[in-house]
Amino acid sequence: MDSVTAVTLVFVEVEDAASLWQRLGGRVEPALLALDAAAEECARLGGGRIVKSTSGSAMLAFEAAAGAVRGAVALTERAAAFPDPLELRIGIHAGTPLREEDPATGREDFFGPDVNRAARLMTAGHGGQILLSRAAAMQAAEAIAPLPHIDLGEHRLRGLERPERILQLLPPSMAARRFPALRTLTALPTNLPGQTSSFVGRGTELARVAGLLDGQAGRVVVVTGAAGVGKSRFAVRAAADALERFPGGCWFADLSDAETPEAVATSVIAAFGGQVRGGDGIAEAGDQLASRPASLILLDTADHLLGLIEPLLGRWRARAPGTSFLVTSRVSLPGAGIDEIRLEPFPSPPGDGSLSGIAAGDAVRLFVDRARDARPDFALTEANAADVATICSELDGIPLAIELAAARSRILQPAELVRKLGQKFQLLRSTRKDITRRQQTLQGAIEWGEEQLDAADREALRQLAVFHGGFSPEAADFVVQPGPEGGGMRGSEAAVHLARRSLLSVREGLDGLRFQLYRPVREHAWKRLADGADRGAVELRHEGWFFRVFELPAERDRHDRAGWRIFADDAENLAEVHRRAVARGPGHEIAVLKAAMLIAKASVKRGNLSSALARLAPALEAARRSPAWPEQDCWFRARALFSHATSLRLVGRYAESLPCLEDALEEARAAASPILLAEVLWDLAHACGMLGLWPRGDAALEESEKHARAHGLKVRLASILILRSGRHQAQGEFERGLAFARESLELSRQTNRRDAIAETSNVLAIALAVVDRYLEAVPLLRESVEVDTTTENRSALALHMSNLAEILAMCGEWGESFRSFERAQALFLELGRPVNAAYTRMRRAECEALAGKTAEARKGLDEVVPTLGSLGVAMGARLTLLRARVLLGEGAPAEALSCLESGLPALVQGEDIRDWCEAHCLRARALLAVGDPAGALTVLGGVLELESRGRLLPSFGVAAWLLRARALEGQGKRDEAREAA
After folding, report:
1. CA-angle at 876, arms to 872 and 882, nearest 5°
2. What is d(CA 8, CA 69) in angstroms, rounded to the nearest whole number?
3. How far, CA to CA in Å, does 646 sit from each of 52, 658, 867, 875?
4. Which one, out of 81, 455, 618, 862, has a CA that is 20 to 30 A from the CA of 926?
5. CA distance 880 to 878
6. CATH class of 898-981
7. Do residues 965 and 977 touch, judged by C-beta distance below 8 A?
8. What is the rounded CA–CA span in Å between residue 694 and residue 914?
């Protein structure tokens, strides 16, 4: 991970290096090699080192600024004295950059704003000049004192908001040198406000603004975004970057207090340093714009001037077509020829929890940078990274909120800040006098936007604040009850209005459009709801939106057909509904159960299923004991029991799921719901198969298929064919298994369900891999992984990634295979599925054994036995085979033979011909290793007998014939051995 250390950075570059070839010709390379040697020697002279260098330039680092000064002066003199003299420009800055090791070279490197400042100082100078920042000059004051130096004053540097006071330093031999003006932005016409802190992130958006302003004269670019997202700061940075492209300058006009078109014009004229002289300020502003070369006007905070700004811009653009405008507003401006750049809050830190992953996010980078402004020794560490990530996530990545929180680092540690986030509106305040009221507090920023709403939108905003984590347009219509001012406006219409005002975000969810209030906005609006509205009524409508799927017949059918997709985007909402139901206490057991059931369903593919089960199990138990349980109809009771059973099955608790599945099946038969019956029977077949209870499983699967075919349930039928494919493969009917897999994929394609297509593509890939067609299987699995990633189907992603890992191992791609296994195992653990994680680890150990990594395979075996050892005969058979492989790899064939002999009943009961064949090939290897070729031939006879019946995989056939050749060789039957081989 990056570390932060005080260091003085020196950037060196040969002046006009491009012309060296013309001037020196073939002498260039010796001159540059001499410069490299001199740089290394002068760095050592000052106690420094070269960080990196290219032809004619270098970056050096010194522990002390005085050493940097000594090294820079010596290098300047040395280069000037070469047979072919070189003029160097040098920039020196002292700071605390991020320090890390370059993975490509193994050498340390530096990153961050301090590096940029040192580099910009160097590019501002001319050949022979050494330029120091104020920080470097102060630290090296004693070393500088006897040398020729001069204070060049404050200068704005390209790409940096904060001006820098620059000191010029020269070697004594060059004291009489005079230089042109520095290459800085200071001489350019502008009134852009200087900044006291560094700019973080937004590289893509800055590039878009630059592209638009470069494209043609007279552009209007509107920067929109939520309160506190950093629109003004971004626009100032974008305008500063554009300074050199506008000979008439870039001018900042603050419109926050402007209420009329005349006031806007006055602000624009004031930006030039002038005053309105005549009676028509609007016309006068147009005349001034027309009289200037191409200019950029930044109109900041135009939110409240909708309807006024667009006619003004139209008039001024007609009068001064070379003038471009950059406008900041929470609301986009209407009109043709206006480009919008929308700023979203910074993304939440990645969920992998690694220090490097957390540190890479812009939200965390901003927090760390501002925390260092408050406390220079602040550093992101293993101890505080998770807390910093939590702060950034809880504040929804809103830069203003993050900056205000980071400023508290002067007195509070990140862990203390996390504990105080519940009082964020009291906590997040600034005492700075150089910023507006709305920027001094998070609450002020939100209130500024709320004041622009009409009464109907304000009321809708407060009711929508009941949603946690977002909502659909339909949910908004269900929950929002228009007040008398609303004129019958629907909740979804209000949400669109609020989105235009940047009070909520809009995105595509799993099942369509999703709105989401920014968290601080939601919390503020919810507090306001308590002041005048009936909060309880809004909460009941919120709960009713989710519980309707249990009550209305049409909604029940939608619930049954949607499967895990229903409310998959609503994990936070459902958690809140569950919390409120639990808080209501006795008498509300059914409501608690309904919430827990929906949480479990939403967790199937994305959430932590173990956590969901921990809610569901006690909720079901309490509901079944309550007087209300018998009053529920058969469909609901079946759904509740099935929800518990399928959750148990999915976390690998197959034996516990069986009685619950049988109870659910009884209720489902009484409910006469074919969709529910087919679903329960499928789960029962799956659980029975995992436990080796084949007769019961086969019967359940057959009945499930009957209901699915009778009622056209294509998605369910595709999943039934998945189980049939696996069953036929286990019985050695490989082509039939492959045919069922193909049919399953075709059915899924007919449904247009991407998740179903990804799952059946995965099954076809497995069927192909079983018959050793690995190269056909890999693209199918890669496609499934891509779909899972884009649809955020995390449980399928983990499964398909582990399948891909196994097939990559069969292709000899060991590195990618083991990395994929690791990712899949970690993802299963995040999802609360320890059995799946252990099974993935076992599969990796099997591949490690194949790769000859016996020690790693042994470690994996020991890790998984406690979790997988009691999960039925099928899993017991796999563990037996893995243990035997490990023992053979460890050179213990007798122990391997004993292991296989004791595990043979499980292998037979498991009814998987592939395991049976592998066990016999391993037995033959062990028998050969202990000197019993006759015994090996006997064992192999049973395997090769399957070949004549077409039930032996080619890979096992090859292995069996090679082992037979070894056994015959061991008996001295060389001709027969050669024939077998």
Report:
1. 155
2. 10
3. 58, 9, 19, 19
4. 862
5. 5
6. mainly alpha
7. yes
8. 17
Strand order in the sheet with 250-254: 250-254, 296-300, 324-328, 220-225, 338-343
Q: How far apart are CA 395 and CA 445, in angstroms?
A: 14
Separation of alpha carbons 563 and 748, rounded Å: 14
* CATH no. for 545-731: 1.25.40.10
CATH topology agreement for domains 545-731 and 898-981: yes
The H or E element spanning position 155 is strand 149-155
Query: What are the residues facing 514 on neighbouring strands?
Result: 507
Q: Which residues lie closer than 8 Å to 265 by C-beta, 6 or more apart?
A: 276, 281, 282, 284, 285, 312
* CA–CA gap between residue 459 and residue 486 (Å, rounded): 8
In one-letter notation, the amino acid at residue 547 is: F
Query: What's the full length of the chain, in residues?
Result: 981
d(CA 901, CA 907): 10
CA distance 781 to 796: 11
Distance CA 485, CA 71 (A): 74
Residue linked to tokens 């996390």: 418
CATH topology of domain 3-174: Alpha-Beta Plaits (3.30.70)
Nearest Cα residue to 956 out of 766, 750, 783, 732: 732
For residue 27, what is the DSSP state? G
Helix axes 714-730, 913-929, angle to 10 degrees: 30
Pairing of strands 296-300, 324-328: parallel
Q: Hunting for tokens 């106690």 — which residue is that? A: 47
- Sequence-ordered list of residues with C-beta below 8 angstroms from that of 811, at least 6 positions apart, any chain: 774, 775, 778
Q: Which of 607, 360, 573, 569 is nearest to 465 (CA)?
A: 573
Residue 410: CA atoms inside 13 Å, Cβ hemisphere, count?
8
The structural domains of the chain, with segments of one domain joined by +, span 3-174, 203-343, 355-443, 453-533, 545-731, 898-981
Q: Which amino acid is at 823?
A: R
Q: How far apart are CA 323 and CA 473, in angstroms?
A: 41
- Cα Rg of the chain (Å, integer): 36
Please measure the distance between the N-terminal and C-terminal CA atoms of the chain and give it in whole angstroms: 54
Tell me, which fold does domain 453-533 have in CATH? Arc Repressor Mutant, subunit A (1.10.10)
User: Count of alpha carbons within 13 Å of 795, Cβ hemisphere only?
Assistant: 23
CATH architecture of 203-343: 3-Layer(aba) Sandwich (3.40)
- Side by side, which strands form the sheet with 3-4? 3-4, 98-101, 108-111
| Separation in Å, CA 251 to CA 164, 272, 638, 740 | 21, 7, 69, 69
Helix or strand run (H / E) with residue 839: helix 834-850
Cα(136)–Cα(898) distance, integer angstroms = 74
Long-range contacts of 45-54 (CB under 8 A, 24+ apart): 45/70, 45/71, 45/74, 46/70, 46/71, 46/72, 46/74, 48/8, 48/10, 51/9, 51/107, 51/108, 51/109, 51/110, 52/102, 52/105, 52/107, 52/109
CA distance 389 to 383: 12
Tokens for 142?
A: 């004693």
Tell me the whole-structure pTM to 2 decimals: 0.69
Mean pLDDT, consecutive 10-residue stretches, the chain (981 aa), reads 73 79 74 88 90 87 93 91 88 86 72 88 91 93 91 83 87 87 80 79 90 84 87 89 86 87 87 74 86 89 82 87 90 79 85 74 87 83 86 84 81 82 58 50 68 80 89 90 64 84 78 82 81 75 90 65 67 92 93 94 85 94 95 93 94 91 94 90 92 88 93 89 86 86 90 86 90 90 92 89 93 92 93 91 92 92 88 78 90 90 67 77 87 86 74 74 83 82 75
